[in-house]
Design brief:
homodimer, mainly alpha, 3% strand, DNA-binding, CadR-PbrR (chains A, B), DNA-binding transcription factor activity (chains A, B)
Chain lengths: 135, 135
DNA sequence: ATTGACCTTATAGCGACTATATAGTTTTAA
DNA sequence: TTAAAACTATATAGTCGCTATAAGGTCAAT
């Protein structure tokens, strides 16, 4: 299977595949005489795994780490769970920060009832005054 | 006032100040004979405004846009409010996406009760299987 | 013979900084 | 007074995860 077919079957751009290879995330495939990359089913699985990790918003570094755990299948999986726990708390703190931000933005927005002159706009005034609490 | 003092009074790195200048966000200050930048109170206010916008997670492009509105103080401020409304809905959709992600991660995490072998780890199995719903 | 679809590498761009290298200037302390 | 520390300047590269572009080689069909 060539790169275009792999790309299509996993739903990824060919550039992204070459990028993952350069990053050491996807093992270098064989080559045809003309230099074209040749992939196997293993590559399909591996690439799909990477993509599912990315959907979970794991970083490439974290995916690397997971790969290292997979390569030592008889070790305890504590580290895998720890990685996930860390990631979950990361996501949760992002949510918390964004919720605080939303609140701030909504209260700023409430300072202006449209159609004033820019000069009198409560929103701009609100930002300029610095009547903002640090998050 | 020199760059270091400006940096300290607003709580920004000097590099960031020079970066904002290059981006056209902060007007180029005067220079001493030795080439050192000399800032005024206007620069302090302007930089503080930029920082408060950044705390609200507005992009540099959005801050540019706000600046253009400020430069036309007699226009209607509808566009200012629209910018903020757009930003609020952007933040809200980020929150929604992250909440869905959190849910997915938590359910994945529930598939493993620590201390198994990596080989039998429900978390890794869960990612590999592809038993994931697209967000 | 040429078009078009595919493949190759190399390089630059995104956003908002941050870090590093190299050098000149000013201030402070021994 | 001199030497070190602290400040300033510019230019350039790195971060992250791609995405885009350029410039070319390969292959099948028309």
């Amino acid at each position: 299977m060539r790169i275009g077919q792999l790309a299509q079957s996993v739903g990824v751009d060919t550039q992204t595949i070459r990028f993952y290879e350069r990053q050491g995330l996807l093992p270098p495939p064989g080559r045809q005489e003309n230099g074209y990359r040749v992939y196997t089913e293993k590559h399909v699985e591996r690439l799909a795994f990477i993509r599912r990790c990315r959907i979970l918003d794991l970083s490439l570094a974290e995916i690397h780490e997971l790969k290292r755990y997979q390569d030592a299948p008889h070790q305890s999986c504590t580290a895998v769970n720890a990685l996930l726990d860390d990631h979950i708390s990361h996501v949760r703190s992002q949510i918390t920060a964004l919720q605080a931000l939303e609140k701030q933005l909504v209260s700023l927005r409430a300072r202006c009832n449209d159609d004033r002159e820019v000069k009198a706009c409560g929103v701009l005034a609100g930002i300029s005054e610095g009547s903002m609490h640090q998050q």
